[in-house]
Amino acid sequence: MVNKIEQDHQRFRQIVRGKIRKDLRKFLSRGELIGREGQRSVSIPVHDIDIPTFRYGDNSGGVGMGEGEEGQGVGQGKNGQGGEQEGQHLLEVDVSLEELADILADELKLPRIQPRGQHNITTIRDKYTGIRPTGPASLRHYKRTYREALRRQLSMGVYDPDNPIIIPIKSDLRFRSWNEVKKPQSNACIVYMMDVSGSMGDEQKELVRLEAFWIDTWLRRNYEGIESRYIVHDVRAGEVDKKTFFSVKEDGGTRISSAYQCCKELLSQHYDPSDWNIYLFHFSDGDNSSDADNRLCVKLVEEQLLPVCNMFGYCQVTSSYGSGSFLGVLQEAFPGGAADELGPKVVTSKVNGRDDLLESLRTFFKNGR
Predict the structure, then answer these.
(1) Which end of the chain is more exposed for a tag (fewer CB within 10 A), N or C?
(2) Do residues 289 and 146 both lie within one domain?
(3) Could you report the per-residue pLDDT of 297-354, keeping only the tens digit for each?
(4) Is residue 83 part of a domain?
(5) How many structural domains does the chain have?
(6) DSSP label at 140?
(7) Could you tell me if 254 and 324 are in contact, meaning their C-beta atoms sit under 8 angstroms apart?
(8) Which DSSP string do the residues of 34-84 spell out, in sequence order?
């Protein structure tokens, strides 16, 4: 019975995965999905899945527990006018972030990321590796205890197959034992940078919030330890918390180099590139203060940021108020994306609306960085 239930559950999960994959583009653009995010899972509304239920006859009228003669049929009363519209089956399914990331990877054909660095950051975990004759009652191994008692009774000749009663004594007790295991842990740092000047409106920030959520989801599937840092900038830049990152708005101009300088200082103080896999993502509408600052940005990326990071991703979010010129500046400065054996290290994408998020994610991670 348990195996049958497990098979049914696995089949149901496969159906859910198929529905999510079919509507993946729609789920990528759903802002409320982030609002439902828990510690390890999100709730996703899935349409058109029939939930197994008991089905009864039509009890809308006639005799039930009230007046009536024995044998009189049920349901002979008048029925109200039924509707003609087909109903929608709506089910909210809890899906783990790991499973969601796997669905995303399957659909986009994303390769798993190969971490770099020496990986000398370790975690210590308890691993049960054997059996011992002493220990706490909570770790008692009942099967091994039974075997020891049975072996003792057989060797003493007191075991009666017609009355197979096995009574363990103290010397028969066996307990699970453990050892501390040091496990290398691949860690990653994600630095999100965003232009919060007057040209970046609420619509642009919502696109950034959605893309950052899926970037975070995919990278957490590939690394056991993730630290996310947030930098906002107009003509000046500073580190903020996650809530402020997605809500703050300024009215000033834009100097992109301030964000890159702030990012450089943050990395040099806290993240050794030999120990950390570093990912940098900058979101902007492409507006910058001057050509001189554009040249400074290129210099900072080339000399300070690329040598220490796995990837530098620039996502330009279309705004009716921004010039959109900075995308061209990066593409001209790094025509091959500063490629190495894994492909381009500088990766750029352009997001005009929610429908472009899927392709943007594919662009960032298709090389397996």
Answers:
(1) N
(2) no
(3) 999 999 999 999 999 999 999 887 767 889 999 999 998 887 777 778 999 999 998 8
(4) no
(5) 3
(6) B
(7) no
(8) HHT--SSEEEEEEES-PPP-------SSB-SSSS--TTPPBS-SPPPPPP-
